[in-house]
Specification:
The chain is an alpha/beta fold. It is built from 15 helices and 14 strands. It binds ligand KE4. Ligand KE4 binds next to helix 4 and helix 5.
């Protein structure tokens, strides 16, 4: 990629946006706040590439923070959207397509009986927590420092992603009442989880965990961690919630449950499930899910839940993934190729770093230590990270603008794109 030198349209658009949108963006992590500089305003996308308001071209490693696993504007997905748009945009009534979507999800995730579609990962996670509380009759729950489960009040305690990126210790507006039942443990630390169960026997409704964390950079579960959570939940009558908003249908057709061989009681989805349109979901066995209204009394609702357009986009995306399983092995191969290529280049330059990678999720952490939880993620060298981010951006490589985010690879990423990415790193110092 040629070095990119001019962003004047993005700069102008950002100034204009700030007059009408808080911080000029509709989601904080887009604002480049921690890496410095102004966000790039995008105009179009195709395959593995983005095109910004100044006509610059980028190789995309954000892919809308995960959804665009097939690459941008996959022809089959676009055709499905266009066709459905000519028939309907929204009913607010049940449709056959929602049932077919639920059945497709069940065919890819064998340990679930029932799926409720919502419109975001936040809705999926907050509904899953309410369901766990309603089902068990308990109030407390355990989450992990650095994990992010959307912006519902109870989760905004030691949250990762944008909350960590902005260094917000306490989110104003999250009341003590809303967060007093949120118990925090360090990721990969089973002892701290066991201690909470000792302290609050029979009071903990659930553990919610990113089975592979992507909101403190990428952090992999240590061997035995997820199995240990499963055992602790079984021993103490709590539900295990896997937040697979990032990992679902991305790490494998069956997500992290398939990769790690551990079954949760409730699984939440987002991102890939909608193929770029607003879809989230939570799912589990009938025994639990039939507590959700109107089958049961745990109330949850949404005007656009199961929206025909969004379902058409998500259904087509999941169908392609289900019917072309080599996509997952290709993504794993691309992830490993990038990891080893970057490692070799940075080691040659004497730049201390570590790379966590699983399938099409990965992150580069600068510093000499391994990153296994939020504390080690936060101890990394962010100055070098920020320099690396801007160097890559200027060379047409679009990386997450935060050390507390994961790269997301797409099936459209080519050998040539990977070579150009490594070539940009060759020029980094
Ligand atoms: P949404 O409400 O943003 O669709 O999903 C919330 C959510 C829940 N669980 C996990 C594991 C997540 O990663 C997310 C959202 N991820 C962020 C990126 N780290 C979305 C990007 C953004 O906030 O703009």
């Amino acid at each position: 990629m040629q070095a990119i030198t001019q962003y004047q349209n993005s700069t102008k658009l950002f100034e204009q946006a700030k007059l009408s949108i808080p911080g000029g963006v509709n989601s904080p992590v887009r604002a480049f706040k921690s890496v410095g500089g102004n966000p790039i305003f995008m105009q179009s996308a195709s395959g593995a590439h983005l095109f910004d308001a100044d006509g610059n071209k980028y190789i995309d490693y954000i892919n809308s923070w995960g959804p665009m696993i097939l690459g941008h504007c996959h022809p089959d997905v676009v055709n499905a959207l266009v066709k459905r748009a000519s028939e309907a945009i929204s009913f607010g009534a049940p449709t056959e397509s929602e049932t077919l979507m639920a059945e497709l999800i069940k065919s890819m995730v064998p340990n679930i009986d029932s799926v409720r579609l919502v419109s975001s990962g936040t809705e999926a996670c907050m509904s899953a927590l309410r369901l766990a509380r309603g089902y068990t009759g308990r109030n407390k729950f355990i989450k992990f420092d650095g994990c992010y489960h959307g912006h519902a009040d109870a989760f905004l305690v030691k949250a990762g992603s944008g909350v960590a990126t902005l260094g917000i210790q306490h989110v104003p507006g999250v009341t003590k009442g809303a967060s007093q039942d949120t118990l925090i443990a360090a990721y990969n630390n089973l002892e701290e989880v066991a201690d909470w169960f000792q302290k609050y026997p029979a009071e903990i409704a659930a553990i919610i965990v990113e089975p592979l964390a992507g909101n403190m950079g990428c952090v992999l579960p240590e061997p035995g961690f997820l199995e240990g959570l499963r055992k602790l939940c079984d021993a103490h009558g709590a539900l295990l919630i896997f937040d697979e908003v990032m990992t679902g249908f991305r790490l494998a057709a069956g997500g992290a449950q398939q990769v790690y061989g551990v079954n949760a009681d409730i699984v939440t989805y987002g991102k890939v499930i909608g193929g770029g349109m607003p879809v989230g979901a939570f799912a589990g066995k009938y025994e639990i899910m039939n507590h959700i209204a109107p089958a049961g009394n745990v109330y949850q609702a949404g005007t656009l839940s199961g929206n025909p357009m969004a379902v058409a986009c998500g259904y087509t995306t999941l169908s392609i993934l289900k019917n072309n399983s080599q996509i997952y092995s290709n993504l794993q191969q691309k992830g490993m190729q990038l990891k080893s290529g970057i490692q070799e280049l940075l080691l040659k330059k004497g730049i201390e770093h570590s790379i966590n990678q699983m399938g099409s999720m990965m992150s580069v952490h600068f510093g000499a230590h391994k990153v296994t939880d939020f504390e080690t993620a936060a101890a990394c060298d962010t100055t070098t990270f920020n320099r690396f981010f801007h160097h890559m951006l200027n060379h047409g490589i679009y990386l997450p603008p935060s050390a507390f985010e994961s790269w997301f690879l797409s099936d459209a990423l080519s050998e040539n794109d990977i070579e150009k990415t490594l070539d940009a790193i060759r020029k980094f110092s």
